[in-house]
Amino acid sequence: MIKRLTRTRKNFIDRDYLYELSLSHEPDRAEIDGILNRALKLKGLGLKDVSALLQIKGKEDMQKLFRTANMIKQEIYGNRLVLFAPLYIGNVCSNNCLYCAFRKDNKTIKRINLSLPQIGEEVRSLLRQGHKRILMLCGETDELPLDYFISSIRTAYAVRENEAYVRRINIEIAPQDTESFAKLRREKIGTYVCFQETYDDVLYKKYHPSGIKADYEWRLSVMDRAMEGGIDDVGIGALFGLADYRFEVLSLMEHAAHLEKNFGCGPHTVSVPRIEPAEGVPFSRHIPHPVSDDDFKKIVAIIRIALPYTGIILSTRENEKVRTELFHYGISQISAGSRTNPGAYSAKGGSDTGSQFSLGDHRSLDEVISSLIDDGYIPSFCTGCYRKGRVGHDFMDLAKPGLIKEFCFPNAVFTFKEYLSDYASPSTREKGLRLIDKLTLGIEKHSIKQKMTEVLEKIEMGERDLYF
């Protein structure tokens, strides 16, 4: 899978400058108010504004930051939360990342790369839960060539379980060359995701002592090659805890600006994982730059304010309490009912295979959805934009003037209705249907309300996969 015929190298991270900026002065009340008022125009923020917000410490100022993030999140995403599940198809890896249980030198976990039939069983298990969107990922190893991964994608898309099927596969695999990304694009994938882990090139070398991932610049330039290869949507991220979180946030801003400048479109998503304990990984229990819950909330809020139209992804690394609070500050996509070891959903690969990290939220998909309903959120499995071609530039052209909501809200409700009809427990179904009735009655635009009512009736009669 790890093929490098081209050597695109664009180191756009000025390490010294960003560290200097990350230690700027704490802003006074007037400066904070000015930045937050500019943020409400939904045009995003520059590096200096972001660096100022990263210095906020006072409780009152933090609450202002959180309120602003919530207002922006509501304006763009409303109460929608997109749900997905990670699908690990292998944990064999040639890298030695110090923080990861999949690292080559970890002898304490059972290794496996799933066969195509085993992958099919995993997908079936996810479909039985009600999932429609998956993130497919694995260790970085030559034992899994790109053609195998492409076959895995095709296998997953081909599975049918009581007429249910996966509607979108996002992928997270080792950085590829441009030619390989062009091949992946033909497989109708959604977002290509790859984390830089840390943007500090000095610390990066320390944490990645061997393996192909040790090449900092090859990884940093991966999204350039992906977009050159025709991938419309890309997802970036940093693993918080490896370096000063302020430096990492500023680097994420630089990465987003780099993509916007060179390709006219920034990242579709930003992921914000924190290091969690992992089997056979002493490093994960002695985090060099730990991020407190309060600082983590600040990170999410600032990213939401600075990149208003970018999806922010939160995994089940975090516990229920933290996740629920972060929904208010900008999170728009979450994993649910997750497992991080290959074969775990169906146990076809063996339930004792090694996990990548420990989970903080162990609830089932139905339990997560039940909790979301209680808080007034709309659980969404929508993939309408992908399949209507509203991706990349086209998505942003609709998102920035606020037009995307006319598609996202109805499509979220339709997929929510499907879940309630086909998979929900009786109690979840009952309160979910009440929420849909309430949401439908509250629609002011008559044409949208009428169309939604018609589609919801069709779903009630058994039709599926309907979207605007």
Give an account of the 3D structure.
The chain is an alpha/beta fold and 468 residues long. It folds into 3 domains: 17-71, no CATH class; 79-381, Aldolase class I (TIM Barrel), CATH 3.20.20; 403-460. It is built from 19 helices and 9 strands. The chain has helices at 15-22, 29-39, 47-53, 59-77, 116-129, 146-158, 178-185, 201-207, 216-220, 222-228, 245-263, 293-306, 320-326, 365-374, 384-388, 392-399, 405-422, 426-441, 446-460, and strands at 80-88, 133-137, 168-172, 192-193, 234-237, 269-271, 311-314, 333-335, 378-380. Strands 1, 2, 3, 4, 5, 6, 7, 8 and 9 form a 9-stranded parallel β-sheet that branches. The chain is globular, with a radius of gyration of 21 Å.
What topology does this entry show?
Layout: H1 15-22, H2 29-39, H3 47-53, H4 59-77, E1 80-88, H5 116-129, E2 133-137, H6 146-158, E3 168-172, H7 178-185, E4 192-193, H8 201-207, H9 216-220, H10 222-228, E5 234-237, H11 245-263, E6 269-271, H12 293-306, E7 311-314, H13 320-326, E8 333-335, H14 365-374, E9 378-380, H15 384-388, H16 392-399, H17 405-422, H18 426-441, H19 446-460
Parallel strand pairs: 1-2, 1-8, 1-9, 2-3, 4-5, 5-6, 6-7, 7-8
Helix pairs in contact: 1-11, 2-4, 4-12, 5-6, 11-12, 14-18, 17-18, 17-19
The coarse silhouette is globular
CATH architecture grouping of the largest domain: Alpha-Beta Barrel
Query: How many domains would you count in the coordinates?
Result: 3
Q: What structural category do the secondary elements indicate?
A: alpha/beta
User: What is the tally of helical segments?
Assistant: 19
Biggest sheet layout: 9 strands, parallel
CATH class of the largest domain: Alpha Beta
Percent of residues in beta strands: 5-15%
Q: Secondary-structure element sequence?
A: HHHHEHEHEHEHHHEHEHEHEHEHHHHH
Question: What is the CATH third-level topology name of the largest domain?
Answer: TIM Barrel
Number of strands: 9
Please name the fourth-level CATH homologous superfamily of the largest domain.
Aldolase class I
Described by its quaternary structure, the protein is: single chain
Rg, nearest Å: 21 Å
State the separation between the terminal residues, measured CA to CA.
Answer: 36 Å
Share in helix: 40-55%
Taking pLDDT < 50 over at least 5 consecutive residues as the criterion, the unreliable ranges are 2-7
